[in-house]
Amino acid sequence: MREKVYLPIFLVGAGLLLYLGRDLIAKSTVVAFGLTFAGTTAVAVLGMALYRVQSELRASRHELARKEAELAFALQVQQALFPRQFPADGGLEFAAVCVPARGISGDYYDVMPLPDGRLAFAIADISGKGISAAILMSNLQAVLRMLAAAGHPPGEVCAQLNRHLCQVSVDSRFATLFYGDWDPTQRILSFVNAGHLTPILHGSRGGQRLEASGPPLGLFPEVEHQVGKVALQSGDMMVLYSDGITEARDRQEEDFGEARLEAVIAAHVDKPMREIQEQVLKAVRNWSGPDAEDDMTLLLVRAR
Question: Which CATH number fits domain 82-303: 3.60.40.10, 2.40.40.20, 3.20.20.70, 3.40.50.150?
Answer without folding.
Answer: 3.60.40.10
